[in-house]
Every structure is written in C-alpha cells, then in structure tokens.
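Morning - calcium ion inputs below, output right after.
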Amino acid sequence: MQTAMTGFLLLLLIMNGIMISRLSDTKQSGIIKHLRNMAWGVAGIIVPEMIILLTKDRQAAYYAYTFYYIAFAWYIMMIFRFSVNYSGYQLFKIYQSPLFWITVAESAALILGIFSERFFTITHAKWYNHTYWISREFSILYGYAAICGIALVGAVAVLIAAAAQSAKIYRLKYSGIAIILSVMAIACVVSQIHEQPILVLVISFALCEIVIVYMAVYYAPKKLNQRAMQFVADKLNDGIVLYDDEHQLQLVTAGYSDAVGFKRMQGISNEEQYWSKVISEANVGNAWNGRVMAVTRDNNTYYYEIQHMALNEDGKFIGIVYWIRNVTESIENYREMVRRANFDELTGIYNEAHFHEMARKLLEENPDTAFVMTCSSVDKFRVFKELFGQEKYDNYLMRTAESLRTGLVHIPNCVYGRVGEADFYIMMPKKLFHSQELLDAIDEVANVYNTNNFHLIVKAGVYEITDSSQDMLSICNKASMACDTAKGDYGTRLLWFDESIQKESMLRERYNAELSKAIEHGEIQIYLQPQVNKDGKVIGAEALVRWIHREDGLIPPAHFIPFFEMNGRITELDICIWRQACAKLKEWKEKGREDLHISVNISAKDLYALDIYEHYVSLVKEYGINAKNLKLEITESAIINDLKQHVRLVEKLQDAGFEIEMDDFGSAYSSFNMLKDICVDVLKIDMKFLGDTENEARSHAILKSIVDLSKELHMKTVAEGVETEEQLNFLKEVGCDIYQGYYFSKPLSVAEFEAKYL
Ligand code: C2E
Ligand code: CA
Ligand code: CA
C-alpha cells in the first residue's frame, strides 16, 4: 500500500515537474512566476511525504516531517502571494511582506526544533490496517497553524473580493480558485481533527494545484476567446451556419437572415440542403472557397460569396460550416460604376473614353477593313439650349442616341458614342457609310424641334481612316475639324476631311500661337467702315479688325475670328481693338471732331470673360472720351445666350451713357420675340439676310416692318451691307436712319479713312 501510494505521489511529482517546465516555457508574466513558485512548493511537500511513507526510521521520518512543515509554510505563503497578484491587488515586494519574514522565522524555528522536538512529535498510527507515521503537534505549533490559516483565509478573501468586482465572465476565474483554496483549508482542518496521515492532504494539495494552474492559465482566456468569438459572430453582418455530423443545425449567427437577404428564419434548419444544392450547382469541389454566385430566391437575385468547409477530426466528418456573405450590393455598385465609367449618363451610349477604346479595338480586329469616322454636332447648341431649355435639349440628345441605336443596329462593326456637350461620333466600315443616310437620320431628329423661327442645324464631318495607327483622338479630331469647317460654312451640311481642312486648321493653330506677339507688334489693327446718314453725311464708323501679318499680309477676320471665338482668345483681341477705337476717339475729340462715333464689336465670349460694364466705364474714363461716341455692337445671338443676365447689363451700360446696337438683327431665331425683353438703342440689319433676290417682295416687306417696329419702340435702324443705289433708295423710302456698306466704302485703314472723311 505504501509503495503504491509512493508511486502515486511520484506520479504527481512528475506531473508537477512537467507543469513547472511548461510554466517556464510560457511567456514570463507575473502570475506565471507565482504559479511556478507554488508548484515548487507542492514539490516541496510531496518529497518529504514520500520519505515519510517509505521510511521505518523514526529519525528520518522526523526530519522529513520538519521539512514538510517548512515547505508547507512556504507553499501557503506562495498561495497568498499568488492570490494577491492574481486578483490585481497592490503588489508588495516579497522581502517587504511581513508574511515572508514570519515564514523565514518559522522555518528557522522548525529547524532548531529538530533537536528539541519541542514543536511536535511523531508516532506510528494505524490507518485502514496500515501503519503510518503521524505527527502530534504541541500547542506551540498552533501559532504556526494559525498563521497558515490566516494566510489561506486572506488569500480566499482577496479572490472573493476580486470576483465580486469583476465582469461576469471573469467571476469564475477568481471564485473557482477561491473555492479550491477553501477546500484545501477545510481539508487541513479535517485532517487535523481526525488525526489523519498527511497523505490525503498532500494528494489533495497537489491536485488542487493542478486545477488552479488550469483555471488561471487556460480556462479564463479560453472562456474569453469563446465570448469574443460569439460577440464577433453576433455582430457580423455575414451569416454563419454550422451543422453537425447528423446535419442538425447547431449554430446560426444573428446576421444570417440579413446576409441571405430575406427575413425568414423559420425553416432555417433545412437551409443546409439549400446551400449544398447551391454549391453543387456551382460545380466546385468540397473545400471550395467561395466565389461570387447569383442565386434567385423570393424572385430576387442575390450574389453570395460563400465559403464552406467540411470539418474533420482524425479523418472523420464532424460537421459542416457555411460562411455566407451577401455581396449583392457591392456587385451592383460595381456594375453601376462600370456603367458610369463607360456609358454616357444621359443617353446611355458610350462615353468618350469607352468609345475610343471600342473603336480602337474594332480597328485592330479588322485590319483589312476601311473605316470612316463621322462627327455630327449641333451648330450653336447654346442658342438652342437657351431657346428651348435644358430639358428639351436633353430630350434632343436622347432622341439622337436612340436614332443611332435603332439606325445602326444592323450595321456590323460599327461603334458610336457621345463626346462632350453635343457631339456624336460614329465609326463604321466605309463601304456601309452613305452620307445621305446620315443626313436623313439627322433631319428626322431635327425636324421634331424645328419651328417657324428656329431651325436646328446639325453639321457633320467625315474622315476616312487612312492610317489606323494614329491615336483615336487624332482620328476623332479630323472628323471634328471637318464638322467645324462645315459649321463655318452656311450652305454646307456635311464635309469630308481633306488636306485643305487640315491645312486650315493648322493655319488656325499657327494664328493661335502668334496672336499675343501680333498684338504686341501692332499687327492687329482697326479698319473703319463709314456710316452715313440720310443726308449722305459720314457720322461715324464701325471698327473692324484686320490682321496685318508680317508674312501673310492682310488677313480678313473670317480667317481667325470664328476660331478665336471658339477658343476664347477673342477677348484678348477685342480689348486691343477697343483701346485703338478709344485712342482714335480721343484724338478726334482733341481735333474738335466729337461728332464722329465708332462702333465696336463685342463677342458673346467677352460677355462671360469680362465685367463688360466695369471695363467700358473705366475705358472712357481713361481716355477721357464721351461714352456716347463709343457704340457697342452685340449680336442678338450673344444676347440670347443668357437673356436675363444680358438685359440687366444692357440697361446698366445705357445708364452709363453708352448706346447699344443689336448687330445682325434678323439673322437668327426669334429676333422679334426678344424685343419685348430687351430695349437696345439701335437695330443693325444686315442686307445679306434680306438680299434674297427671289423673294424680293417678301424681303422688302420684312425690312419695312422691322423699321416700322423700331420706330414704334423708339429705336434707330442701321442698314449694313448696302451695295447698290436701289437698296439705298428703298432703305430711304422705308425710313431707315443710317447706312453702311460697299456702296459708300469698304472698311478703310485709319489713315485712309481720316484722309477721306476728316
Ligand atoms: P459684322 O460685325 O457684321 O461686320 C460687317 C461685315 O460686313 C464686315 O466684314 C464688313 O467688311 C462686311 N461688309 C461691309 N459692307 C459690306 C457690303 O456692302 N457687302 C458685304 N457683302 N459685306 C460688307 P468683316 O470686316 O470681314 O468682318 C466680319 C465679321 O467679323 C464681323 O461681322 C464681325 O462679326 C467680326 N468682326 C470684325 N471685327 C471684329 C472685332 O473687332 N471684334 C469682334 N468680336 N468681331 C469682329
Ligand atoms: Ca458688327
Ligand atoms: Ca453685322
């Protein structure tokens, strides 16, 4: 029996040893150190107990007992220290703790006691038919027992205090150990009262030690882990479902119904069948890690990212877990993003970038096919927008896109797209392109918007792609150049790109590069065309720009004005012209000719680029001239661009003394209509628009009514482009006030003008 018990104790000792070495392995933290010390304490009480069990020699047994008491005292101290640290209470340095010194003193006393046997004696006693050494303490050792008892109770007390203060999941971590320590304390008392051999006590201490280490090192963190996992699973928007080996539902996260996209939790236990079907249909292996797939349930399509895994232990199936993430929204967002990136939002056809990409692809895939690129664009789309409003304009764009869709659907190898505000591009095989078909399609759409006084004009440019290695932008540019050139030519609706267009646009590029220098060097000059009254007297002139180019000679405005109007540099040029006009007026004033005026042209772009009012007020101030002598010509289409804004501007300028002339009156759109909103001083009527010989009678009638109307509205009329005596006579007849045109004089250089009229 003794040997068996010794063997068992040896086993405990070995386990304890393993524990000590494991605890040395783990990262050194405060608690681990205390646990290790306790384990040493346990070893310290097991070893003497083994000697006590085995020895027949009383003296040896007595020594062992003494050693046992000493080890026990240290062990209790270690327990106390562990408990205080474990529960997070103030740490005392071990040497400063009274318990340490008491234990040292006890140990010393016990060693001295060996010789006097004053503390305890040992004797043989029978226990279950076996003889054991048991000890009998003398009353002097009760002090020792009391100190151990107090330390143990103290340890239990701090643990209970910690348990009371801590969160629920940590409560067991403290109270568990407190209970074990209490069991140990009770075991001590019971074995003392019943005079049991200390064997039972030692065994229970060793076992308790193992439980304490388990509780302190493994149990609490594991529990925390579990809690954390549960927390994550509950908070997760993804669905996690777990089935056991019998396909019974074991776990389903709170996010499951959200994740699968429908609120139907009942029948969830049958869902596994569903998921396994989904996955088997996806035709993937068993440990397939999720890809996105579309699933239709409840008439909705969902996209899931599913990960599933069969759980195995030792090669045996123990369950299956599905992790289902609903990615419907992100897939839809992604598709929307792609759509937005590639398609024009309004019309739903390709946008510029995607059109270029697809056109490039088409060229590469069909190297032997000759392609054409066409560009079609509304002429003066801003006017259209102003007259009809954004909504109708958008409607026009959508209708055009629709006509492209239906018209081109049967044409193979054809791509089209919308670029910029109003340009549509089509690329198709040359042999399938017929310009008349394009124009017919354009007309069909345009007719919807045409009214009596407004014609929607859409122009087209076509470029045969001779060299498909050029980049797409320059291919499109060539079609666009042809289109722009068509826009500049009243009678042309469609133009094929050719060298002359190329040359012209290169020339424009050159002018663009040279403009600043030209202004600086005085190459930009005003020419003056006289304006004559009824009595044939020159009363002023219109200032018209001429570029006296140092290489190309005199360049008429038609060659550069439209281009500078397009790119905005017209303002730079106009400012230069206005200053020259002002300088001239100043000179004439000084010569006593304040009766002469100069009319200058204001471009639509100027109205946006400058504070026209401020600019003119300070101009006349700077030159010291009369505002009345500087007349301002604004075309009706410039005014119509932003009618409300410009009505105010015109009123302000008039208040400052300027006279405003509406240039090219009658050339555009709802000329008459506009007169109800805006009150200008002069209507300038271009004879070109009325010089239609076929309909002379009608032209005359219109002109007459314009003059009549202007009289009624207290506006003067200027007729420009007067070329013949007949025209002049007719104008005089209907009561037009002022005349300008080749009949009197071409625009003249300032010197010529002054020589002739001053
Ligand atoms: P606009 O303002 O309507 O100027 C009248 C144009 O008619 C001038 O052309 C003038 O030379 C021309 N003209 C004058 N009398 C007759 C005639 O009897 N018969 C014909 N067929 N034409 C006549 P120009 O000088 O070539 O100017 C063309 C346009 O360029 C001008 O039209 C105006 O819109 C613009 N422009 C000219 N100078 C300037 C300027 O300094 N600034 C701005 N923004 N535009 C200017
Ligand atoms: Ca003019
Ligand atoms: Ca004019």
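Note: Residues 198-235 form the longest helix (38 residues).

O.
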